[in-house]
Design a protein that fits this description.
240 residues; alpha/beta; 6-stranded mixed beta sheet; 4-stranded antiparallel beta sheet; 9 helices; 10 strands; binds adenosine-5'-diphosphate; binds magnesium ion; amino-acid transport; transport
């Protein structure tokens, strides 16, 4: 589904990603853990071209994002993203937040998009909130709407950047439950998270990113129970 080869990203003088190569299979759930500032968000943002790598190549379903003539918009639509701070449109109702992109990009008619929005809202437990504005929702509800909004574009991959970090503790479970259900439905997912219990339970694979490279990767059992790299061990000893 996704292949990246030797991705580098430099901001000014600072090389933030120093050569990341990785493949993510269809249906795979990959969690990314690592210290703050290590390049996790930058890596995710490269995967849907919110950032352009300074070097290296990204393939989505075998198609290069950087090939001359690449249909970047079509490729980007295959990749849904959920951010730490929800990024809902405050002036639109919940339903309109969800229908905006599929209608604007001609993926669905207005009425099909509305039906789809209600269906997705039911899936995240918020079908009764279709006509309210985001300001009336809790953080956990906003994040579930953001997930529904991303799914409305029928992406092939979902990227999550610390989706529960901005939430009050009692809201975290509902959002993780929605993500777990998505994983069980076979969605390909890449999740930057500090929820180690969740990562261990849901992931097929865990990547430990530090200082702009993948320092260690493996099954959740390998990474959490028997990490081999000293930096992984040190990081986990602080967060577990
Ligand atoms: P993480 O998500 O692991 O905390 P980030 O990918 O957000 O790390 O950031 C990695 C480094 O890149 C940080 O030092 C950050 O300040 C820097 N950085 C990220 N985005 C930009 C940007 N747009 N311009 C300059 N520096 C950036
Ligand atoms: Mg980040």
């Amino acid at each position: 589904m996704i292949k990246v080869t030797d991705i580098h990203k430099t901001f000014g003088q600072t090389e933030v990603l120093k050569g990341i190569s990785e493949s993510i299979a269809t249906g795979e759930v990959v969690s990314i853990i690592g210290p703050s500032g290590s390049g996790k968000s930058t890596f995710l943002r490269c995967l849907n071209l919110l950032e352009t790598p300074t070097q290296g190549e990204i393939f989505i379903e075998g198609e290069s994002l950087s090939a001359p003539g690449a249909c970047v918009d079509a490729l980007r639509q295959k990749v849904g993203m959920v951010f730490q701070n929800f990024n809902l449109f405050p002036h639109l109702t919940v339903a309109d937040n969800i229908t905006l992109a599929p209608v604007k990009l001609g993926k669905l008619s207005a009425s099909d998009a509305k039906d789809k929005a209600i269906e997705l809202l039911a899936m995240v437990g918020l079908d009764h909130k279709a006509d309210v504005y985001p300001s009336s929702l809790s953080g956990g509800q906003k994040q579930r709407v953001a997930i529904a909004r991303a799914l409305a574009m029928q992406p092939k991959v979902m990227l999550f950047d610390e989706p529960t970090s901005a939430l009050d503790p009692e809201m975290v479970g509902d959002v993780l439950d929605v993500m777990k259900a998505l994983a069980e439905q076979g969605m390909t997912m890449v999740i930057v998270t500090h929820e180690m219990g969740f990562a261990k339970e849901v992931s097929d694979r865990v990547l430990f990113i530090d200082q702009g490279i993948i320092m260690e990767s493996g099954t959740p059992e390998q990474i959490f129970d028997a990490p081999t790299h000293p930096r992984t061990q040190s990081f986990l000893s602080k967060v577990l």
